[in-house]
Specification:
Length: 591
Amino acid sequence: MDSYELPLMEGPSVNPNQAQVQYGPIVPGSVARRPTNPISRSATKETVRDPNLDVNLPYRTLSGDANLSEYTTETAAGEIPGPIEPHGEQRYKLVTFLPNDPENPKNWSKGYKWYCTMVVAITCFVVAFASSVVTADIPGVSDEFNVSEEVALLTITLFVVGFGVGPMIFAPLSEVYGRRIIYGTTLLVAVVFIIPGAVAKNIGTLLVARAIDGIAFSAPMTLVGGTLADLWRSEERGIPMAAFSAAPFVGPAIGPLVGGFLSDAAGWRWLYWIHLILAFVVWVLITFTVPETYAPTILAKRAKKMRQETGKSEYVTEEDIDKRPFGERMRIFLIRPFQLLFTELIVFLISIYMSVLYGLLYMFFIAFPIIFQEGKGYSAGITGLMFIPLAVGVVSSAFCSPLVNKHYRKLIAKHKGLPPPELRLIPMMLSCWFIPIGLFIFAWTSYPRLIWVGPALGGFPIGFGFIFLYNSANNYLVDAYQHQAASALAAKTCIRSFWGAGVVLFTVQMYARLGYEWAGTVLAFISLACCAIPFLFWTYGEKIRQRSKYAYSGEEDEKIENANEGLGPVVREDDEEDQDLRRARSYVSNP
């Protein structure tokens, strides 16, 4: 999950000594979310901007009538009263966090939150590292098993395919069972199946092991962004998210560097052993030192414990009372991403652009050995060193990410807290040019007779542009699709993974047919054509969203702006005389 910044909502001052319950903004009747409300989350069209949108909340698992403020609100009593039952005054109670609740991950000490952040970021790094470290000695696999290079390259392809398949499975499971159990079980499976790859006696065993590892390792990549959002409040997320954003790109860049020297010294099997060692370490760290961080899971356990201790069944969470039917959940998780991909122009073109970038990254793992080993006669270890500028570019852009967030906060204030989604495209419009610039440098300095500096340094602007483009694309999809954002991001992840998996199979042939220079130039022109995409949406994005079946169109911004003026109150638990207010607060939730 990538950085997503939200404006801060401030309500009236509260006396901490008073026994009060804090609710989310009470939405007026005209736009209040009720079962029959056409602009609720149960509808596909996102006509209302959710000021409290958190893409990590279980919008897809729970019904459109669920009170999701349960997971984001701290109350003095530790509960939010539900609506009045038809037969009388008895109401169920939604369990919430208490003020300064030690079980709320956002209240953990900053030092411990940073420890958890680094553990999950390193886990993400190790997973990305695993996808590329084996590229250092593809010829070794080919020679030992007497198969073609294309078959040996399937060790990369099948692993990356798993990155596209796994999230379709693990994302919904994490919304039901929490993050910790998914981390622990999938990483354990991944660790176990590295061993058959390391000791494989035939190519079939190796390919099956890599396919299973790709699916299992996709879970941490899917959950890491959500874990960071669990830990950090929106105003604190800039630097932690920057650290996470760099990991998926630094890992693939470091993989060939480590793998090159290791394969030169000990052979291709040690690429799997080093992978096993690192994966086992992060499995131990994340399984035994990082507790559950997902608020719905934590509160569900608390509600169950309260029912057992008190003998009262009224303590519940929204998962107990408002879960969507199983069939509906499966449609949303498995079909909705492809509905968005093939019917929404924004999702389709953004996914194509991200696929081009992702494919470019994996194409480099094949192109660098061609340029430096075949063309210049370098060893695998020295060729791995050529990835350093790419990694430096990624890290440099990660350091600049907080500046981008700071600039966006200024734009939020300028637009009175209702910025159009297209403002997320500004970093993309500026950074998109770095990719073709780097590719042109890489292509036309790759002559075998020239020094290594040109093609190696061409990786710096490419790495520098990656994070800005990915974060901008993800944030634009989130702002444009609101409660449908998880499905939009799933569609993008799926298509980019399949494309990244495919490009490694024809890179060698492309360089053989076109030559070093023109093969790189073709890639440069493709990335140059993609530069038109953010400018297209900057100009026509609002009109496209208005005609969209799913995208947020901004039609109700004025209503929400008026509704939020002076709202977000603190309502006393004993204020029972105002029936309209009591009815409204029973339905308080994200619109």
